[in-house]
């Protein structure tokens, strides 16, 4: 394919036509894969992002023709398996995204291929279990069970058994489970908020009233994130409540290609969020992937659903929200403690939200605090890094991040994505622990 100048405009995303029967036509898929792979082969700008592109380029370079037409179409899926939908290629690298005439959307093409695989039943039992976050969390979060599960996850023999049974790499960090959920930890802040912040101040796009979408991860795996978020919001005179009912945002099912399950989760979550929005509340979720799901993926899957679009307009990342308040001079900047030097990893699913580095900007407001920002993928993806066939590749992707953290000699290292933080810690191999930005902000406030 002849070289062309790249797109000079901001990338735009077309809706995902996933209910069209042609979406699942394998012949049409292979035609599009060959077309896009040929463009990627001629460009190669994304080679450093993940293993999807090196896998593609190796297939081409090892073919008889040294072109995509020499690659066996049966091998096209090898590229698909390495993509974990971080979206960085689309949002930060690719010069051929729409409105360019070549109309390249690599992540959503990979998603289409994953959806076809899932429809054919081409997935492992492990993948189904790993993406069933609510079911696993509800079982593993039972008080006695959580103790047993957490102990087993720290036991070498148990991890070897888990590898044999489910294909979970024994060296991968797996999340802990807590019987005292994040929703329970938030209860006291929500109660106190009812009486102290009845007269919330609207500022710009923000109402000053926040309903927290707890997320399955924040609720069961790191409940302190919800407590930290609640305390920080309350300290900033922002009313706090919870979305009354929720299930997983659907991102793990999206990454598996299980789009029907994504729709099922949407049908539960969106009405609950809309109830809050219609009552004057904004929505915040503490995990970037969950925010991205409601800001981008669901609106693209359901472009004609007015409620989905309403949630898109009213859901925020925590630091995005706080910086919007700061713009209106409503952020409390009376910090009690400096944080020194922070090695801050900007998570992929936060970067692709196109709002700038709000976490960095806010933490830099803390006196005597410096931020070293690291804009590289951690290679985690929620499930990719724990699978036995991908774990070592994930750690290789994360190595530049780990190296920068080590060289920074910082007081803290941190990531908005808690799973990315633990991925970095896994590579540090020094028993250090990441501190989430919300935890750091709470520390700076002296709360």
From TrEMBL:
TM region(s), chain numbering: none
Pfam family, one: CCG
One function term, GO molecular function aspect: metal ion binding
UniProt entry keywords in alphabetical sequence: 4Fe-4S, Iron, Iron-sulfur, Metal-binding, Repeat
Domain Cysteine-rich stretches: 210-295, 342-419
Entry protein name: Fe-S oxidoreductase
Organism, scientific name: Cocleimonas flava
């Amino acid at each position: 394919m002849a070289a062309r100048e790249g797109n000079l405009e901001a990338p735009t995303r077309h809706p995902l036509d996933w209910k069209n029967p042609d979406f699942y036509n394998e012949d049409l898929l292979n035609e599009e894969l060959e077309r896009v792979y040929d463009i990627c082969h001629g460009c190669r700008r994304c080679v450093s992002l993940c293993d999807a592109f090196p896998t593609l380029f190796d297939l081409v370079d090892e073919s008889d023709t040294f072109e995509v037409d020499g690659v066996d179409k049966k091998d096209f899926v090898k590229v698909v398996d390495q993509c974990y939908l971080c979206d960085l290629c689309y949002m930060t690298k690719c010069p051929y995204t729409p409105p360019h005439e070549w109309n390249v959307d690599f992540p959503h093409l990979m998603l289409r291929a994953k959806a076809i695989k899932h429809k054919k039943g081409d997935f492992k039992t492990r993948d189904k279990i790993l993406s069933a976050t609510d079911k696993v969390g509800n079982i593993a979060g039972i008080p006695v069970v959580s103790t047993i599960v957490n102990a087993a996850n720290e036991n070498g023999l148990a991890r070897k058994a888990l590898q044999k049974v489910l294909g979970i790499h024994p060296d991968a960090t797996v999340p802990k489970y807590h019987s005292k959920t994040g929703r329970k930890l938030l209860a006291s802040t929500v109660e106190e908020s009812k009486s102290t912040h009845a007269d919330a101040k609207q500022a710009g796009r923000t109402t000053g009233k926040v309903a927290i979408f707890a997320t399955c991860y924040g609720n069961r795996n790191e409940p302190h994130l919800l407590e930290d978020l609640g305390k920080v919001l309350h300290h900033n005179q922002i009313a706090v409540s919870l979305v009354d009912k929720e299930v997983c945002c659907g991102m793990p099912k999206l990454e598996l290609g299980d789009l029907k399950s994504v729709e099922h989760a949407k049908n539960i979550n969106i009405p609950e969020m809309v109830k809050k929005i219609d009552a004057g509340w904004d929505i915040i979720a503490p995990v970037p992937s969950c925010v991205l799901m409601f800001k981008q993926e669901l609106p693209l899957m359901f472009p004609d659903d007015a409620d989905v679009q309403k949630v898109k307009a009213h859901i925020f990342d925590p630091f995005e929200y706080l910086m919007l308040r700061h713009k209106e001079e409503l952020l409390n900047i009376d910090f009690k403690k400096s944080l020194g030097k922070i090695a801050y990893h900007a998570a992929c699913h936060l970067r692709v939200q196109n709002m700038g580095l709000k976490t960095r900007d806010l933490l830099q407001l803390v006196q005597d605090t410096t931020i070293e920002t690291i804009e590289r993928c951690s290679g985690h993806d929620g499930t990719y890094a724990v699978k036995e066939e991908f774990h070592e590749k994930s750690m290789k992707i994360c190595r530049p991040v780990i190296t920068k953290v080590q060289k920074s000699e910082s007081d803290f290292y941190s990531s908005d994505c808690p799973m990315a933080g633990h991925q970095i810690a896994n590579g540090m191999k020094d028993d250090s622990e990441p501190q989430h930005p919300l935890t750091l902000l709470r520390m700076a406030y002296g709360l």
